[in-house]
Amino acid sequence: MNKNLLKTLIIIGLTFTTITALQAKVAVIGAGLAGLTAAYNLDNKGFDVELYEARERPGGRVHSAILEHADGTTTIAELGAQNIGDGGDAEYLLALAAMLGLEIETQYISSGIEFHNEAEHSDLYDSVRAEPLNTESLHQQIQALRTNSELNSLQDAIDIIFPEDTPFKQMVELRLRCDIGSDLSDLDPYYNLNALHYMAWQLMHMAEQETGPILIENTSIKGGNAMLPLTLAEHLREKIYYGKVLKSVHESGDQIKLTFTDGSTVECEELILAIPASVYKNIEFDNTIIPAERLQKINAISYGTLSKILVPIEETDALKHNDASRQSIAFTTSNTRVLNLFFGGETGANVAKNKDDLFRNSMGMVKSSHGPVFGETSPIIADDKAFTHYKGSITKSWKDDSFTQGSYSTYGKNNPAEFATTSEYEGVEIKTLFLPIDNRVFFAGEHLSIENNGSMEGAVESGYQVSELF
Q1: Which structural domain, as residue segments, surrounds residue 105?
Q2: What backbone torsions phi and psi does residue 65 show, to the nearest 5 degrees?
């Protein structure tokens, strides 16, 4: 089916129910947004589809929680994917949400930033305005770096653009670590230049605002982003099996045999692997299912280490600006009463181990700007249930999550070339590394998205894309 036609059908709310049921049995591994979207669409098309999920809940890296304030009121907060807008226009996700009857809400984040360096803090944009760089010279330098064959990592590119260690440079580095999730010395210098360009340009653009800080949109599913996977799961109901950790995938005559760690087995004719590339190494595959060379390349894909601490606050208008240091960024969105502390790179990788120190340091940073308006309770590690109710601060490290082992895919400097190239398959453009195998083994996940990897939109898009191939 033509991709544009597919999107049109989704947008006007049509589902695929005209194909004769039941067709060949399809097994989908992973009930994150990609797997749920693929299974939902295939089910509507009349396929005999079953979905197997390692967790006891759907949603994967979409994980909403409830934080209680001192006055007994509560706020929904996101331990995982937070902003729909991270996926650009998010056409696929917004269309799916509309089809399911889910509402979208928009909140706002101030663009103002106080940058903290030890005991001092100041308006970040003073440093930006003092930089000899302007948007035109930034563009020229980025273009020159694209042909610089001596770059070893994204950090090298940053050091060329920002030779001095100013707050502006430190903020660009922090934003990239918290957006991409990885240490900048581990990132490919060429595939990440656009992100560097955008981060630096955005801060320069904000510094030019004569009226002061502006408001930045943050969009989410009303009631919590986990409402999207939970609603999809409700439609699939008895076709989802939880607690199914995939152990091996083998040939079984003309069928594909799936074995799970609980000893159960399932056979299918076609398989969709909608799991992060970071966990393939935990699964045994026959060479005819996924050739060893390709499996080795999938295992080489790097994943970020973005982590969060979420803190319930007592004043709805407590933060007029964000706070940042070399280590973390702290912000609230309008009307939420939740302080979000973001950590990336090596710091993010060790949040669970160092949560008390990171919490204390970050809260000290915030209080130096805003006063003692926050609770003092150190965070606990959140459980893996959707909408668990908490009475204090919580934290989540996706690197420590056994079913993801990272926040989302990144363009690391050791990634295989096929992760960044595309090929056409039955009229659909797909990342070369994840082309279907023998028209019976298929792939889905945010890591397949060409333009929106690392986002909810990328996951939903890939789920629709793979279902087009059936």
Answers
A1: 64-112+213-225+305-400
A2: -135, 165
Q: Which of 268, 281, 368, 362 is nearest to 23 (CA)?
A: 268
Question: Which is it for strands 64-68 and 74-78: parallel, antiparallel or unpaired?
Answer: antiparallel
- Assess whether 119 and 198 both reside in one domain: yes
List the beta bridge partners of residue 389: 66
Identify whether residues 18 and 54 lie together within a single domain. yes
- pLDDT tens digits, residue range 356-386? 999 999 998 988 887 766 666 899 999 999 9
- pTM reported for the whole predicted model: 0.93
Dist CA 190 CA 182 (whole Å): 15
Same domain, yes or no: 218 and 108:
yes
Matching residue, tokens 């996926």: 87
**Location of structure tokens 């009463």:** 337
Are residues 220 and 363 part of one domain? yes
| Both tokens assigned to 390 | 């908490």
pLDDT tens digits for range 266-277: 999 999 999 999
- Residue 268 CB contacts under 8 Å (≥ 6 apart), including other chains: 25, 26, 27, 50, 255, 256, 258
Cβ burial 16-36 (10 Å sphere, 16+ → b, else e): beeeeeebebbbbbbbbbbbb
Task: Give the tokens for residue 164.
Answer: 């001095």
If asked whether residues 310 and 217 sit together in one domain, one would say yes
Cβ pair 203, 171 in contact under 8 A: yes
- Total of domains in the chain: 3
Whether residues 49 and 92 share a domain: the answer is: no
